[in-house]
Each structure stands twice: as structure tokens, then as C-alpha cells.
Structures
1.
Amino acid sequence: MQNAVISARELTRTFGDKAAVNRLTLDVLRGEIFGFLGHNGAGKTTTVRLLNGVLAFSGGSATVLGLSPAADGPALRRRTGVLTETPSLDERLNARDNLTIYAEVYDVPRDQVNRRVDEILGLFDLADRSKERVGGFSKGMKQRLALARALLHRPEILFLDEPTAGLDPQAARQVRDLITHFSRQEGHTVFMCTHNLVEAQRLCDRVGVMEHGRLLAVGTPVELARQLGSRARVEIEVAAEHVQRADSLLRSLTADVSVEHDTFMIGGVEREFVPRALAALVNAGVMVYRVAPAEPSLEDVYFALHERNETS
Amino acid sequence: MNWRGIRAIIRKDLMVVTRSRNTMLAMIVVPLLFTVALPAGMILLSSSQDMLDEFSPDGDMALFFNNLPASINDELSAFPQPNQQIIILLTMYLFAPMFLILPMMTSSILAADSFAGEKDRKTLEALIYTPLTDAEIFIAKLLSSFVPALLVSLLGGLAYGLVVNTVAAPIMGRIFFPNLTWVALIFWVAPAAAALGLGAVVLVSSRVNSAQEANQLSGLIVVPLVLLVIGQLGGVVYLSAGVVFSIGFVFWLLGAALLWYGARTFKRGELLARL
């Protein structure tokens, strides 16, 4: 695929008899936030390791930024950044030392190291704690520092493994904002492993869903819903005094109806249902204030994919 | 070879280890004990009647005296007083194997912290995703343990020389340290002992999950040094210059073999699989 910065073809990695990654074929485009979804043990982390050349392939091929992970691991890792599931920071050292050492390892030009470290500490709101031991940091601060370290050498692709796992809502939001900033404003490609479906829906341009090492589907949530033949959901808001009348009328048309206050959620319907229901409501004298089609959530798609895979 | 990256990892490992109070305590107390406190104490005791009795023909150390080879007897004959001879035997021979514990212990403590400690502290994954090759990481880890061990043995040798020459000056009347055996010990055997300690830790580190386990297992490597102490006391072996050169040669061979095997098995993929 043109403009792909990651291309995997039949990529496979086995441990003994078990295939952790099984014939994975995937393209990730430059500048997109790609969500890699799956349960624990689905093969997400192993894929990141394969794509960065830290694990050998058992089969298939891959190129990342035009390089082969198997043959050009060091050159490739110079151009990627990885945020691992645990922050992997030296807790006996302070924040500045953690960053400075990795700036040297990633060969940031000597005359830029201090400036780059200062900039990123400021950006991640850690400047005033830069001389403190990391061991005393909160989980959210550690995660921000680990993300800062992954971005210090300005990687072209940022791999994130469960970037907000275990964070409180505020810290998780800060991390999400930083990811969005670096993708949308600085043009980094982001490859994000997660099982947080709400987060993936909010951040990702496209997603791939993994199960037992196999890629079940890839695309935007809407594309995936279409692939699955998922039916639409519709929200209909009516006048409060007409809720009862509307309820009996809608239930006579379809079974999947729920109501909250004066808004009905109707699921599993065809597009043609909307004008039919609207006409029936209007003819019955129900005041309709709002009719809104609801996109299928990523969660709907995710579980539908797994369900389909289980049954097949 | 990415020497800048290697230097950064060495700096990181040394910063991490110097911020561990327990490790630093062990690295300061043991050398002070072996190079300052014990030799100074023994020299001061050498003129006591108890010590003279121990080394007399009827004393417990008689076997040691009776079995001395001619070369050592020649060396002792230059010092006519019994307490002078005791000082020569203690400082030149009996303390020699204990001195070797310093480089071996230093390198193994640092290597355990550097290799297995990364797993302990959950920092290995970040290191593995760096652009450094497996060989560069391995070299950085070796040097961060080996170079400080060399420094400790050189400084320890210097401190030992200063202490024994100074404390024994009123009894000996002249500077007597070092002899050829100790020069070989400091510059030939101590680096080999450091390499051997390092090799032992590298070997066990990939199979254990903590620096503590690595230290405990690799601690077995000091057994030959303990045997040397016992061998000297029992009159079985004496650390003459020739023996010291031979021990150094054997240590280098064993250390090199262990490190060669460690380098071959040091693969980031394998390390990750064990996380």
C-alpha cells in the first residue's frame, strides 16, 4: 500500500507449538493513529517486538520505514520510539538523568541534548520535578516521563503499549492529549496497542482487532461495522408528555427499544426503518424533536468480531 | 560500534549502583576491612606473646613454617626478628588470597546489579528497544562492572601497601612491600579474578530473576580463594610468584570461557522472552 510506513505480510512468530502472531498482514499509513486491539495475550506486544526487530520472525516478512526489522534492527530503532506497558524507568535516578542518558543512547546531537531535555520536560509538565528521584513520582508522572523518553529523539513512528493502563482518569486524559498532540500537530505515526475500546474509538483513525495471534479485521469502526453487516442504531427524542404513546408505537414496529427520559434508543434496524417510524409517530400526534442515527461503537464492533470468530 | 551509547549505559549503570546504599556499603566496608583494618590489626598483634607462641616450633602455625619452600625461607632470612618474619608471612602470603576477593566481589556485585538488576527494576525492556546492538549492550554491561573492579583492586593494593609499610615501619625498619608476587597479584591476577567473577554472574544472570539470586549463586566463585587460604595455612600451597602467575592464567582462561559463552547467549529476544 502506498504511503504505508509499516507493512507486514504473513508475519508469524511461534513460541514452541503456540503461534503468538499468526500470519499477520497489515499496513499502517504515515501520520495515522492506528489502534491495535485485543485481549491480553492476543499477540499485540509480540507484534510490536517483531516490528522493532527485537524478536526474530518465525515466518513472513515486514518492513518498517522501508527497513527490515530482522536485518536493520538498530537503524530502525533509531527512528522509532516505544512506550512499553510498564514505564521501564530507572527509579533510582532523577527525571533529567533518565532522559539525558537515553538522549545519548539515541544519538541526539550533543549540542542539542540539554535543550531537547528541557523542552520535553516542560512540555510534559515535569520541569519543576526534574531533579527528583523517579521512584517518588506518581504513576501518571512516570507514564508521562516514559512517553517523553520515547519521543526525545523525535521518532517517526511511536509504538505505545497500553499507554493509559492503570492511570487515574485525569492522568489518562493528559497522556491521551499528548498522544493526539504528537500525532496531529507533529505528524508522528502512532501504533497503539490497547484493550481500552473507548480510548481507541476516541483516538484512532483506524483499528486492527487481534485474537489468538490472528488479525480478525482492520479498518475504521464504521468500515468494520459495514463488513460485519451491523445494523444501525437510531436515537429519537420526543416530547415528554408523548413518551408513553411513542413507546407503545415503536415497540409495535421493532423489538430492540430502550428509553431514557424522553429519548428512545432503537438498535438493530435497517435504514428504511427511520422514515417508517417517523411517519408513524407524526401520524399518531407525537411531537418529535430529534432523530439521530448513532454510529456503531467500537465496542459493538469488537465484540461482534470476536463472537463471529468464536462461532466460525 | 556506538561508543557514545555504550558510555551512556556505563554511566547509567554506575549512577544506579552508586545510589544503592546497601551495595555501596558492601563495596566500601569489605575493601576497608581487607586492605586497612585487618592488616593493620594483625601487624600490631605480631609482636604480642600470643602471636609469637603461635608461630613458634611448638605452636599451631608450626606446620606452616616447617613446610616453607626455600625461596620463602630465603626471603624470611633477610628479617632476623620473629615478629618481622610473622609480618612478612601475614602480609605477603596469608592476606594475598583475601585481597583477590576484592576484584571478584566488586565485579560480581556490579554485574549482578547491571545484568540481573535490570530485570529486578523492570528497566530491561526500555534498554532492549534502544538502537544499541546486543554486542554493544553486552560490552557496556561488562565494562560497567569490570572497570570499577579494576579500580577497586588498584586502589585496594595501594591502600594495602601504604598501611602495611606505615604500620609495620617501627618493626621492619624499612619499606618491604610490594614484592614480585604482589605486583603479579595486583596487575595480573586481580583483573583475572574480576573477569572470573563477572563471567560467573553473566552465566547465572540470564537464568535468575533478581540481582540477589545472581549474587548468591555467583558467590560460589570465591570457593577457590577460600581453598587457597586453607591450602597456605595447611602448608599445601604457597603463593610464590610462579604460583600466582599460574593462578592468574587459570582465572583468565575460566573467565574468558564464561564471558565467551555469556556473549553468545546474550540475545535481546531471549532476555525479553524471560521477562
Note: Chain B has a mean pLDDT of 84.
2.
Amino acid sequence: MAETMAANQIAASQARSSRRMRKLLERTLGYTAATMIGFFFIFPVIWMFFTAFKSDQDVFRFPPTLLPHAVQYVDVAGERLPLYTVSPPDGEPRKLAMVKVSEGQGTYVNPDDPSEVFQTRARYAEPVLTVQFQWHNFVDAMNRGARPGLKVNFWTYFKNSSIIAFFTIIGTLFSCSLAAYGFARIHWPGRDVVFILVLSTMMLPFQVTMIPLFLFFTETLHWGNTFLPIIVPSFFANAFDIFLLRQFFRGIPEEMLDAARADGASEFRVFWSIVLPLSKPVLATIAIFTFLWAWNDFLGPLLYLNSPEKFTLALGLQDYQGQRNVAWNQLMAASVVFTMPVMIAFFFAQRTFIEGIKLTGSKG
Amino acid sequence: MPGKRFWIVLTMLVVVVGLLAACAPAAAPETSEAPAADQAAASEAGGSGAGGETLNVWITWGDNPAQIQSLFNQYGEANGVEVVVNSPVDNDKVIAALSGSEPPDVLVLSGPDDVSTWVTEGLLEPLDDLAAANGIDLEDIYPAMLAQGKRGDSLYALPWGSDTYGLYWNKDLFEEAGLDPEKPPQTLEELVEYADKLTKVDADGKITQIGFVPDFSWSHIEQYAPMFGGYWVSDDGTQVLLDSQPIIDALKWEQQFYTKYGPEEVLRFVSSTGDYASAENGFMAGKVAMTVDGEWMVGPNFIEGLKPDLWYGVAPFPYPEAYPERANTNAVGGTVVVIPSGVKDVDASAKLLAWMMSPEVVAEEMIANYNLPSSKTAAEDPRFHENEKFVIFMELANDPNATTQIYTPVSSEISTELSLIEEQVLHAGADPEPLLKDAQEKLQAELDKALAQ
Amino acid sequence: MTASQASAPRKRTPRKNRRWTKRSRRNLVTGLLFITPWIIGFLAFTFYPMVSSLYTSFTIYHVRAPSEWVGLANYQEMLADRRFWKALYNTFYMVIFAVPLMLFGSFLCAVLLNLKLKGQSFYRLVYFLPSIIPLVASTILWVWLFNTNNGLINVALGHLGIDGPSWLTDPQWSKPALIIMGLWGMGSTIIIYLSGLQDVPASLLEAAELDGASWWQRLWHVTIPMVSPITLFNLILGVIAMFQYFTQAYIFAGAQSSTAASGGRVLGAPLDSTLFYSVYLYHKAFINLKFGYASAMAWVLFIIIMICTIVLLRFSERWTYYGEEA
């Protein structure tokens, strides 16, 4: 008996230490994996960030570099001239300032002694590059009016996107929470059948309703080129958010509602002053999901907004991608600017946001 | 717990949105206020309901939107209206606007490809009467170009500027390869030979410089097909000729530039060249030695503005050695102006159109962007004859061997199909003949059906 | 909050037999009032357009003239349209490869984010960051990262001695490239998984740990069954969304067409390998003005999605765990 006790103790302590070892190993593995995967997520973002500071020529340079480079200029007798490394086939490479190029023939001077002039084929010269951050890309990106007649710029798009996102969030929160309450906390005959109908609308691809709705909004209601076709449907509830809210509402203890009902509160009052205040996490979640969706929505604006003064950011960012060239640096600068606020909001709201999702009602 | 005030504000907002939704037209000025606020002329633009104060011009291309806006400002100032130019506009936006309730007052298209479909759908105003009423001199327009805007007996599109293509070559790279920098290839056979000399492959078999890419930036088969003696539609527009010998020959000729180095290698190299309208463009950056490109490439929006140091030349595209009579063959196309049906004031649109078509305006716009004028009077403007490289294109467009595209009700279907076949042949090494035969049958049937209606 | 929910007794409704009591009638009225916004929305923005598009799919639509009834002609045309089949194939490819990869990837990420690591909030931000970058910018960015010669990915692979593929000009690699791009932006799915992981009762995991179950065993025998309803949810939503894959493909096509190697082809390059169902449908409708044909395509898509969803739900019963409630 005693022997087995001792053996058990030894085994237990061995198990403990091996468990500690395993814990340590698991942690190390966890950090390594999380960091490696994190690198996959963040690297393009970092690249985007640095691209925002690059010069036009730098963007396509081979091999690509993370830090922005630009041609170095030197003062030669009061003039700012670009510096080149000139290496003609029959001579030593030299750092010279370029004066001009014509018919493929380049004229260069020694920056230290402007009287020393060199003539050679321009193809033997390579510009000298140094790290330079082009801060003005941000200013250019914000002020860029790709369509001068319309006086639109980044802020126009920003404002439009904000208006749409704001009303879409309000509409979604309002209509979906009402409907979700109706499905979660009121027992009416036929409820479950109707709820299955709600869920099954998720299967309906937008392509089925796209054309009739387009014709309905533009031809019948004359809402073409306004925000209404994009905003108004959000005031009439959607299945995904109803589902999310219903799951959360179901987790609220019935006694709390019954107590209010016993006090003579109407069902709406119960919903308004008891259920909603308890549901902040899920409302925050839906607000963020809806915001992201509205912020990135492309098809709605693409279909309904025709003139650039109505464009959202998602559409307007295409301005930077012209028909025949992309203003990479400005596009990335604009993206950095308008990712920032969302990023900060997410950082602080994440806990609430994650708590809000209760897909499996069983653990409510 | 959200405060009471929060919910009151929320409810009020909902009510406001509801009201906005109820009166849609009222919402429109509300949202367009801010962009107009910093406009000096904003006060004039108010009250768009009366019609005619603001004219919207949409242009589906746009290399220099600022220049084009200032051109239209001249009309605005002279006529006390505001002309708002939206350029460039995506093609899908155009269709949405045409089929919706707010089409632009005047629409400028990069080419007449879609005109047929839109005419069938009744989306465009016929221009014959409007042209006559507003004094547009149709006699002054090059007849071949005018013909492109006709569908049946009616005129639906007026040519504004036109384009044609020639061979651009990089003299630096010629010199480096031991070729005479002043002598471009004369024949197609020479072009193949030069292209080979101008292509550099490194030790790993990777291309580092390429002589010629037949579909660089976009397809140029409309230029090649006439060089091989044909076109994919008969002159009267009733027969599809996709599987005819000239098309097969043209595609096979194009294909060799890919097969020689392997399509993957060519594509790998070409995709590493920069954007078309930038100094990183493969030709401007000295990575592609010869290319087919339009007259605008010479001008301030392209080489003159982006890479003025480039040492290059322009020549008519080479002809087949066996057919010297095909020298200077080229296909002229160009921008057209249309008036959508359902514009708020057809006469105001037509008046603006007439102004756009006047030789002075045509001259000014085309010189600014280096495009060919559609008006004979405008073409006499000395400014078109200053740049010797540009003059080559002026002469090409007027050459007896200049051709224009032939449009049918299924033009856009044919060009889609042909572009897919070209991609298969060039980029995947497919045999053109069976693909063309297949497309021929299908499209001839579609054309017959469309013509029978 | 969570604790109070956990202690809440579940009230079932044992009123089946007394269906039409006064209370239940009142409840019916109240319930319907609450869901009125949805009912109106359903009728106006779902039901009416469905009927309308079903009708349109049997017609040739004219903008300024009445539609022509053509019976099944649009559906017949679809059968003969090579590009339709190509688009369907490409879309199925994405559903079959991208959706499971995304589920697996986002579950893995969620598990990592759920470890009690230092700097957890920072990791969460990093994993979620790509989803808040505007799609237009991120898609164009990726097109550039995937460039065969100059792209960062191939340059990096080159340093490892690997000759990277021609991601965007080789039809074999263009869809995998899009999948990688999609994996990068799957933040929302990660969040949904993460919330599910946080609902796995700690007591269960502790019990398993005391029994000597390794991390892997706990994951396999406790966590994965516990989050299986979420897997089903993400799977079905993922499949439905992937069949409608549009925005990225559309922007991708635009970004591709501005490159010299695409030959200016707007749609599907290279070699129609990125021609997806929704984009083709959109193109048919708003470029070619074939509303009838596009509507027919939309209905075929609807039927495909419906079949897939039902099949998935059927088979899910075998592997989904709903606790006592099931």
C-alpha cells in the first residue's frame, strides 16, 4: 500500500515536471507559430506603408527595396543636377552630375569641378539613389482631384463613405435587433418556420436580386446616383445579423424580462430598456461587421453611384488606378490614412467585439 | 448602458433618413453640396431642375483631364453654362447611366464598338437632323471616319479625333545591338530578324530585353490583319471572315515572337515592365526595343512628357516582303461623340456637340493630346505639322492604304472572341485554325440572326 | 456577463397544444410587429426581385422596349456558352480549395490567438489588420507582390533558391494566387472562430488536462468538437460567399488589364483562368446589356448554392456537436 503511494507520488511529480516541460514547449511553439503567421499578415501592410513614401520611379525598381529611394541631386554652380554613376565601356565608373541628354547622347560634369565636361551615351549612366521619404505623397493623395471639373478629392470620398457607413450601421442595428427580439424572446405560432425562411434567404445570391433591384431603384424610384439604394435596404434587416443578435438575446435570463413584464412593461419597453442595454457586445460586433462591410462594399456603389462626387472610398480609390497607370504611392498613402482610424478602433474595441459573437446558443 | 440621449439621437437620425428616403430628389443636392462649395461658379450651378445650366460630358478615356476640362470651360464661359467633364469614366458606369434615368448630356467614347448594341436598344439619339439644325459640316469630316458612326441609314456617332498605329523603335538599343539606329525594319521578315537581334537572354534563359512583342499593352490585330490582306468581316458587313487566310496568317506571324523564347518567358518578362502611361512603360524604359503604338505616344502625355530624353524613331509598320504594295497599310479608328437618348435637353446637348465638332475645337483638343483630327479643315492647322514624328501618323491616316474597321451588330462579340483566340494562340501556343473555325460558325450564325431582325 | 448567462435556465415552450390562447394571439401580433422591418424588406428586396428575375430569365430584356418572351432560350444559350462553363469551373475550384483552406487557416489562427500569449491584443490586431485595408488597395498591392520578376514574393523565393512561378500570367497559378490573397484577408472568420473558442468551457479543458491529455489531444477531442457548429456556420457561409466571389476578382481584373502582359484583356486573364461566375454575370448584364441571360445565370447559381447548402447540412449531422441541446 505504502509502496504504491510512493510510486504514485513519484509518478505524479514526474508527470508534473513533464507537464511543465510540455507547457513550456507548447508556449514556445505557440509564440513561434503566432509570430510566423503574423508575419504573413503584417508584411504586406508594412510594404504598403513604405510604398506610400516612395517616388514614382522607385515603385517599379528592380530589385525591390523596402525603404524608399530617390535620385540624389547635387548643387553644381547654383543648379540642382541629378547625380549619375557613369561607366562607359572604356573607362572607370565615375559619379557625375547630368546636364542634359539629347538623341541618346548625355552631357555630364564633375560636381566638384564644373569645368570638367564628359560626353557619353546616356545608357552608360545609372542614377545614384539614396533613401528619401516622399512625405508629399500624402499631401498629393489627399488633394488629388483626378477629375478637375468636379473638384472631388479624397475627402469627398471619405465623407461619402462615412455617410453611407453611418446610416447603414444605424439601420442594421435598429431593424435587426427588433426582428431578432421578435424571433428570440416572443413565442408566437409559426415563429420557427418564419425563422427558417429568414435563414434560408442567406442562400440567395445577390446576383438574383441585383438586376430587378437595379431597375427598381433607378427606373421606378429614380434613386440612381444617390446613396439611397445602398442605405435604405439596411433599414429592413438582414438574415446574418438577425441570427447573430438572436443567438445573443437567447442568452439573456428570462427572469430579468419576466420581472419587467410583471411590472407592466410593454414588450417593446422590455426590449428597449432591458435587452438592448445588456447586448452591448453583440451590438458592437454588428456595428463593426457592418462598418467593415459598408466601408468595403464595392458592388452597391459600383451599380448605383455614377458621378465621382458621389463615389465612396472603395470606388474612389480606383482613381489612383488610372486606365493606363497606377499612382501606387498615392494609392498606398490614401489607404494608410484611411486604415488608421479603423485600426485604432479595433485595437480598443476587440474584447467587446469578440464577446459579442455567440453563435452556439446552447452555452448561453 | 446607453444613455437616453443616445437613443433619442438615434431615433431622430432614423426619422431623418426616412424623410430623405421619402423625397429622393431632395437628397441629391444635399449630398453634392460640399464638393461644389469650393467652386467659384457654384452659385451659377444651383437649381439644376430648370435644365441647361449644367452640362455633363463623360469621356471614357482621359490622359489629361485638366486640359480637357479647361477646353470645355471655354464653351461654358461663352454660353453662360457650366460644363462638367467626367474623365475617365468606366464602361460599366456608362451603361448603367444610359439605361438609368440620368444619362450624361454628351458622351465621348474611345471607339464605336458598342454603338451598334446601344442603337438596337434605343439608347442613342439619331444625329442627322440635329447635325443639320446646328450647322455641323459633315462634308468636312473624313468620310471613312464618318461612316463608322452610321448604323443603317442614320448617323448615331460623330468622330472627334482619330488614331492610327505605327512602329516605334529605340535607337539606343538598335545602336547597342549593332543595327543602324536610323533604319527601322522595312518588311515583316526584317522585323522578325531585328527582333531576334534585339532580344537578350541571360545565362538562366531569362529574357532581359526583348525585341518585339506583338500584343504589347493590348491587341493590335486590327493593324496586322490588313497587312496580311484581309479583315474579319466582309466590307458589306454581312459575312464573318474569322477563319480566312489573312487572319490565320496574322495570328501565326504574331505567334512566332512567343514560341521563339517560350510564351512563359516572354510573359514573365513583359509582366515585369511598368504601367503604360509612365516612364516605366517597357518601351520608354528601354526594355522593349520595338513596339506598335498610336500617335499619342509621341505627345506630351507620353514620351514627350514622361521620358523626353528617349532616343527613338517612328515609322509606318513594315509590310510583307512579297507584297510591297501593302506598304503604309494601317487601320484608323478613333473617338466618337454620341448623345444618349433621354438627356434632359437634346438641343443643349446638340449645341455643345456642334461646338465640339467645329474645326477650331477639334484642332485645339487634338493638338493638345496629340491625336489626329477628324475635320479636314482642322488638319490644315500648322501645329499638326510641326513634330516630324507626328506627321508620319498624319500621312499614314491619309494614305490610300489606310483602312477603317467595319462594324456589325455583333462587333463586340467578335472582338471578344478574337481577343480570346489571340490570347490562346500567343500565350498558350494554340493552333489558330480550329479555334477560328469554331468562332466563325458561332458568330456567323449570330450575325445572320441579328441582321434578320 | 458570461457567468450570469451560464447560470440561466433554458425555458422551453411547452405550449404546443394550446396554440391559440389569448396570450399566444397577443404574442403573434407583438412578434409580427417586431419583425415588420424584416417582412417589408423581404417582400420588397427579396421576394419581388426574385419573382422578377425569374421572369426576366425567360426573356430578352430591352431597355427602351418591352421584353420578349423567349422561353428557355437563355438557359439553352448558357449550355452552349464555353465561357459560362469555364466560369463555373473556376468558381467551383475556388469553393473546393479556398473554402476549406480558409476554414483550416482561420481555425489555426484563432487557436493561436486564444493561447494566453503576451501581447495577445497586438497579435489579434495584426491578424485582423488585412481585413480593414480597403480591398481596392490590397488587391492592387497583391497584384504587385505577385509580379513574376519584380514581385516581392518571387524575389523572396529567389533568395531561398526557389524559382517562383508566374503567378499572374500562368493560368495554373492565378487562382492559387487569389486564394493566398483571400487567406490574407480572412480576419472576420478568425474572429468568429475566436469567439467560439472562448465559449469552450474552461472546466472541460482543465478536466482533460488533469487526465493527462496533451495540448493536441485537448484540441482534437475537446475543442474541435465543441466548435463544430461554428465550423459548420463558417463552412456554409464561406461556400455561399465563394460562389458569389466578385469584388476581388473584379478589381483584380482591372488591375491586371493595366499591365502590359495581359494584352489589354479586361476579363479573366490569363486565359480565362480568373473568369468567375459573378464577374461574368455582371459583365453580361452591365457591359453586354443581356439582362435576361444574366438573370438566367443568377438562377442557376441560386440552385447550385441551394443544393450545396442542403448537402452540407445533411452531412453535417455526422460531425457537428450541439451539446445536450441537439
Note: The CA atoms of residues 165 and 294 of chain A lie 5 Å apart.
